[in-house]
Amino acid sequence: NWFDEDDPLTMEEEQFDVILADYLIGAMDGFSPYAQDQMIPKLARLLKPGGKLFIVGLQPIPDRTPNDPDANLICKVREVRDACILLAGHRCYREYPVDWIQRQVQTCPGLILDHTSQFPILYKQETIVKQINVARSKFQYFPTPGLSTAMAAVLDDLESKLWEATQRSPTGRIQLGFDYIVTAQKEQ
């Protein structure tokens, strides 16, 4: 944990030519919530002059996609998965939009926003089912068995609808959202 008060990660004396923050900002909410705005400046201090910082992230899945019922199923899976995580008393990952990351880079002294790339996400059924199974893995922590039974029925229904949606798709995949890479460079 980069921000653990009892055991802080200190690397201030080290500097690197390249730093890859691979889905780091989104994962932080599960481990060091409310410190996301401090991460890019912390990483920038670890860069050598002229060094590159690559920030990989996932554009947050929207609450709904009214004009695309198949993609909307993925939105619903995210919603139910996160509900199960919260009902289990655990924290969800919280992804950050590309424009939030760009603003953090632009306001970080000594960093220059270099480039942003976006990559559309094509979800396979197996990928979506993994998220459904994350939700199912939380049932053991629910306060009542009835709640587990009710959520299991919701997830089973979603899995069935997703199978139908991926079978309808010519590629067997459902497109929704994008991953991104924001590239920044430390001033010389």
UniProtKB/TrEMBL annotation:
Q: What name appears for this protein in its UniProt entry?
A: Methyltransferase type 11 domain-containing protein
Organism per entry: Entomoneis paludosa
